[in-house]
Every structure is written in structure tokens, then in C-alpha cells.
Design brief:
The structure is a homodimer of 258-residue chains.
Chain A: E1 3-9, H1 11-14, H2 17-29, E2 34-38, H3 41-50, E3 57-58, E4 61-62, H4 66-90, E5 95-98, E6 106-110, E7 122-127, H5 130-137, E8 141-145, E9 147-149, E10 155-157, H6 160-171, E11 176-182, E12 201-202, H7 204-212, H8 221-232, E13 237-241, H9 244-247, E14 254-256
Parallel strand pairs in A: 1-2, 1-11, 2-8, 5-8, 11-13, 12-14
Antiparallel strand pairs in A: 3-4, 6-7, 9-10, 13-14
């Protein structure tokens, strides 16, 4: 099986144009088939402020009314996605931008209203790999923003971590998938202040005690849950850390293992 | 040679959600390989107003500073493009959004500063058909917004009519290309007030006298010049009119002929 790297980048890189350029140059040079998934929270928030549109969050998740969906679509699929694609072209990586609607790749259900009405937020139902795989096979690199669709004409805001893990799972049928969650730390830390306290391996066994001990807290739990979800569904390798881990296999990071 | 329809739609359809939906449903049902090219001027202008960013036009062309480019990227590649793609998916047409940066498809030069500095406006230098053709061959429909890139990381605002004609020319090497410019009239009119005065055929011979007589004026000239440029470079058929001409071959329209 051929290796496919799926890399998710978030605000730590996207909000810093210098860091983003450095990352994209190295990412472009990776020889293996690869997919990039990006969020872009801060840019959407500042655009909302500029347009006098209220920002509502619940437990770190964005409540997405029609105005917010429009902002997200403009910021994620427009501004961030197209600039990443253009930069990668400059580094001779033939990239192509995707939302989940493009190629009918990621179909989601609008999240049902329970305690909270999240609005136009999508929970992924199905990933179609055909179009993306066709492109990968031709050495073209898909760049996903955090938007899906319901296959009935409605775009939906969807968590970028989840998009990355669901793509990883879907492509594991054909590829040996390595899933990299890049964020602002070298890995999951025992002590958030101290970069030397990286937890190098998280397994289901130590995960429970790390939560019980209060070492892994609310913010990290959905991210790590996504990782376990991927690992349990045949994704070969799941890593959390700085982008360096992608380019230097001995660079410290957190590895999620079954 | 297989037929490829390249269809350009502008503000008359994009600014009217009902018209757009009706058009997309019919467009989705077209069996032949097809490409859609869209502008979106008014949406970009109203977004600029909402964000308190000045709009500067010169002879109907937008002067594109960095802020304006950002707005255009958000409106064209984000909002308009992704909503069209999602709608087409709902009508069972597997579509994928493109800017000229995606797949390195359309490379442009930033327009040199002469009397006017148009800013980040691109004049098309080269069309690479590979990625788009790969998708068309697999029955996937590319949807182009009016953005190109300079292959050095810079996105550029580019006239949608020109994108349509340059795509048409590039694909004429492999396909029998039909190029349709859809706008708000049944065709080019002798008398702008009277829809019954359609000029059914414009050739190079009558074009000159139509200009001399003042029947074809400034606004239409760049559009018709684009048409002649296409016809002279082996595009099989070039038509101007309402979207109806696409779905009903006997529907009145203006045909541009050599």
C-alpha cells in the first residue's frame, strides 16, 4: 500500500503569514501523495467583526447562522483556501482547493437541535473518495477547507479536525494513511507551561488516566477523540505536534496508538 | 471530436437567486461535457460597501487593490462558487470549483501600469488544460470563478468573459467547443429598448459597420471582441443571449461568425 499523508493545520499556522509560507514551501516538497486540511477560525472572526456580524461560540464551537455561514464560506473556501493553493503552485506543488461540496466529496447532516442550535453545522455522514483519489493519482494535491454539504444544496460548517479524520478513515481502504494534526505545541503536554513534558504516546489505557488526573482537559479531548476514532478505523499513524514532525521523523511529537 | 459547452453567466443570473436556481437545474441536466464560468460583480460591490472598502471602477473594469482582491476572492471563489457547486450537486451534477490557481489552470500577468494602475488585475498568459480535462473525462463539471494567478503566489482578478474565451480556445485543440455568453438580453440588439431587434449574426464585415453606425457601443465591444478572438482561434460556435439558447437550439440569439 502506498503512503498518503493527511495534514491538518489550524490557526497557529494560518494566522501567521510567515509561518504559513515556510510550512507550505516544505509541504510542497513532500514527495508522497498528500492532502492538506485547514481551519481558519480567527480570520472568520475578524471578518465577522469587520462586517458587524455577531460571533457566538459554545464550548469552542461556532454557532453558525446564515450570516456566519456566509462569512465562513468566504473566509475558508475563498480567502484562505485560494491563497494556499496559489502559494503551493509557486512552490511547484500542483494543488486544487476543495470544500466537501466539490466532487461531492463530504456529505454531512445538519446537526439536530438539542440543547443548543448550532445552526448550519454539519456532522459528517459519508466521504466519497473518487474525485480526490483521481487527482492524487495524477500527483495533484487536494486542499480542504472546513466546509461540507448536505447534498441538497446546503453548505455546512464542519470541524476541520473531523474532516481530516474522516478523510483519513475513508482513504485507509486504499492507502497507508498517516494523519498529522499540527498545532502550536510539540505535542500533548503533561504541564501546559512546559514544552519538555510531552506525552510521547497516548493509548486508550493511559488516555483514561490522563483525563482522570486532569492532565488532558476539555480543549484537547475532542481532538484526541478524533485521533482514536481514526486509529480504530485502520488509519495507520496519527500524530499531534508541530509541523516539524512532518519533515523530520525523529522530531518529538505525540503519537496516538491503539 | 466531442462537443464541450463552455457557458459564461454574469450578474443578470447570479444576482437573482431564483433565476440562478432555475438555470443551474437545467445546466445540471445537460448531458455533454461542460464548463461553467461565472462573474459576480454586484455581490463583490455590496460586500465592499458592507466592509467600508471603496469601490473604484474605470471604464467598467474594477480597480483591484489588495483589499478589493481579498473581497473578490471571498465573494467569487468563496460565496458564489461554493454555493453554485453545492446547488449543482443537489441536481446530481458532480461539480468542482476552480479558480485559475487550482490545478495551475490559468496563469496571468499582472497588468502593467499605463495610464491607469488596475492593481491586481491579470491578463491571461497561458491555460493548462490537463487537470480540467481529467475531470471532464470523468464526467465532473468544472465551475470557474473570475480569478487567475501569476504562478508566483499572487491571485489576480480577471474578466470572466476573457476566462471563458481563453478556456474555449485552449480546449478547442481537443474538443468541438461551443461558447455561450449568457446575459440579460436575447442577443445583441439594434435598438437597446426593443428585444425584437436582435442581430442574429455578427461577422467581421457587419461588425465594423455596426460600430460605425453607433449600434454596437462601448459596453458591448470588449464582449464581442472576446467572441471574435475565440472564433478566430478555432472555437466552433460562439453565441450571446439568454440562457434559453443553451437548452433550446432554435431560441433566438446572436451568433458570432467569422
Amino acid at each position: 500500500m502506498q503512503t498518503l499523508k493527511i495534514v491538518k493545520i489550524g490557526g497557529a499556522i494560518i494566522n501567521d503569514s510567515k509561518k504559513l509560507a515556510t510550512f507550505l514551501e516544505k509541504f510542497a516538497a513532500l514527495n508522497e501523495p498528500k492532502i492538506l486540511v485547514h481551519g481558519g477560525g480567527k480570520i472568520a472572526t475578524s471578518l465577522a467583526h469587520q462586517m458587524n456580524i455577531e460571533v457566538n461560540m459554545h464550548e469552542g464551537r461556532r454557532i453558525t447562522n446564515a450570516d456566519t455561514l456566509e462569512i465562513i464560506t468566504m473566509a475558508y473556501a475563498g480567502k484562505i483556501n485560494k491563497n494556499i493553493v496559489a502559494s503551493l503552485q509557486a512552490y511547484h506543488c500542483n494543488a486544487i482547493g476543495f470544500s466537501g461540496a466539490d466532487g461531492n466529496t463530504i456529505i454531512a447532516n445538519k446537526r439536530p437541535i438539542q440543547k443548543i442550535d448550532y445552526g448550519f453545522v454539519g456532522d459528517i455522514k459519508k466521504v466519497h473518495t473518487t474525485v480526490v483519489d483521481l487527482l492524487i493519482t495524477h500527483k495533484i494535491t487536494p486542499i480542504f477547507c472546513a466546509i461540507t454539504h448536505d447534498a441538497q444544496g446546503q453548505l455546512l460548517n464542519t470541524n476541520a479536525d473531523t474532516i481530516a479524520s474522516e478523510l483519513a478513515i475513508a482513504f485507509s481502504k486504499k492507502y497507508k494513511v498517516e494523519l498529522y494534526y499540527c498545532f502550536e505545541k510539540k505535542g500533548v503536554l503533561r504541564s501546559i507551561e512546559d514544552e519538555d513534558t510531552i506525552i510521547e504516546t497516548i493509548t486508550e489505557t493511559n488516555y483514561k488516566s490522563l483525563i482522570d488526573e486532569g492532565i488532558i482537559t476539555a480543549g484537547m479531548i475532542p481532538k484526541i477523540d478524533n485521533c482514536f476514532h481514526a486509529i480504530k478505523h485502520k488509519v495507520h499513524k496519527v500524530c499531534i505536534g508541530l509541523t516539524d514532525m512532518l519533515f523530520n521523523p525523529t522530531f518529538t511529537h505525540t503519537s496516538i496508538q491503539q
